[in-house]
Write a structure and sequence with these properties.
By secondary structure, the protein is of the alpha/beta class. It has 13 helices and 13 strands. It folds into two domains: 145 residues, ATPase, nucleotide binding domain (Nucleotidyltransferase, domain 5, 2-Layer Sandwich); 177 residues, ATPase, nucleotide binding domain (Nucleotidyltransferase, domain 5), CATH 3.30.420.40. Helix content is 38%, strand content 19%. The chain binds zinc ion (ZN). Zinc ion (ZN) binds next to loops.
């Protein structure tokens, strides 16, 4: 796999630094609605009310590690949630501080579940950045400021249980495959348009991966040979025309040109204010120019899906992330129809395109399910 791994973008992963897109030549990162969401940290009393359902027996721990927030959930053997804890990552405080927060968050979740570390069957962690999946090391995660952090080893030594780490998008798709929109399918392609566009592929229960790191960098498939510069340094990648950031940038231009009066009222021209919800509302209330932008983006995604169908023949294609959640019918139907113009005629009826079901839980639940798959189905130990 020669495609840069660091561009794989989580559906919930957001840079802590707002960098408005200017000429399209810089890495496209911008603060969006997820930043606001992370301000809501669950207080212990709320947590007791919402979860705290005690369970007997061993538990599986899922962990979603992001640049701005971390989410930990404990599940029983049937993957019913028994406790959770969400915290800010505070990535600027450095590696040791983040690692301490991860350990504290897992310990707090255990306490909430009424468990100790000896009750953990296994821990799965969805991570951003470039990973060495063989050693469980985060090789480079710019959002965390980490380089060569042996996360698996650290958690194994701390909790004395099997630990597996994986790419956060891969584990999000695995979550949808295990318990969400792709449940029961033989193979699932997941595409999550966010700041970039993340992708993952599950084939007969396995996450498709490279020799060392993850693969399925669908956001960096070239769709316009002479297109705009991408954050990866090449031109015309799918995410330059179809990511939420790209859509927001095009929408801001439409507002500026006076072509989107509803969005102008809702969000103005500030990229950070043009969130998925505002885009969806402006379309509902009649901004045809914004609808066209979203349709064009979804058609690009559909063409990528058609190409993937020709290569890998997924049974189910799951589209997720905040943008899809805000307007599932428009994006899913458009992408599905567009994909049929790209795939071979013989494959037209071999797959379906659906919206994700698990929302922000896809990675944390997928991480726990992947831990179970890794340590109980295959009898491997961490
Ligand atoms: Zn690219």
């Amino acid at each position: 796999m020669n495609i840069p791994q660091d561009q794989k973008t989580s559906p919930v992963e957001i840079s802590p630094e707002p960098v408005p897109e200017t000429n399209g030549s810089s890495t496209p990162e911008v603060v969006t609605e997820e930043i606001v969401e992370t301000e809501e940290i669950v207080e212990p009393e709320e947590l007791t009310e919402k979860s705290g359902k005690k369970s007997n027996g061993k538990i599986w721990i899922g962990f979603d590690l992001g640049g701005t927030k971390m989410l930990c959930k404990a599940y029983d053997a049937k993957f019913k949630e028994v406790a959770f804890r969400r915290r800010k990552t505070k990535s600027r405080k450095g590696e040791k501080s983040i690692l301490d927060r991860i350990v504290d968050t897992i310990e707090d979740t255990l306490e909430e579940a009424g468990k100790t570390k000896s009750d953990i069957a296994g821990i799965g962690v969805g991570c951003p950045g470039i990973l060495d999946l063989n050693t469980g090391t985060i090789l480079n995660a710019p959002n965390l400021g980490w380089k060569k952090t042996p996360l698996k080893k650290i958690l194994f030594e701390k909790f004395d249980c099997p630990v597996v780490i994986g790419n956060d998008v891969d584990l999000g798709v695995y979550g949808e495959y295990s318990e969400g929109a792709g449940k029961g399918a033989n193979s699932v392609l997941g595409i999550f348009p966010g700041t970039g566009i993340g992708g993952g592929f599950i084939y007969q229960g396995q996450i498709l991966r490279g020799t060392r790191s993850s693969c399925m960098e669908i956001g960096h498939v070239c769709v316009q040979a002479d297109g705009r510069m991408c954050g990866c340094g090449r031109r015309g990648c799918l995410e330059t025309v179809a990511s939420r950031l790209s859509i927001a940038a095009q929408a801001a231009q439409a507002v500026y040109r006076g072509e989107a009066p509803v969005l102008r009222e809702l969000a103005g021209t500030n990229l950070a204010d043009i969130r998925s919800g505002a885009i969806a509302e402006s379309i509902e209330k009649g901004d045809e120019s914004i609808k066209e932008i979203v349709i064009t983006a979804a058609e690009h995604i559909g063409r990528a899906i058609g190409n993937m169908v020709n290569l890998l023949a997924p049974e189910v294609v799951v589209l997720g992330g905040g943008l899809v959640e805000a307007m599932p019918t428009l994006i899913v139907d458009t992408a599905w129809n567009s994909s049929k113009n790209q795939c071979l005629k013989s494959s037209e009826d071999s797959y379906k395109v659906v919206a994700a079901k698990l929302g922000d839980d896809s990675t944390v639940l997928g991480a726990a399910c992947w831990a179970k798959h890794t340590f109980s189905d295959n009898q491997k130990k961490g």
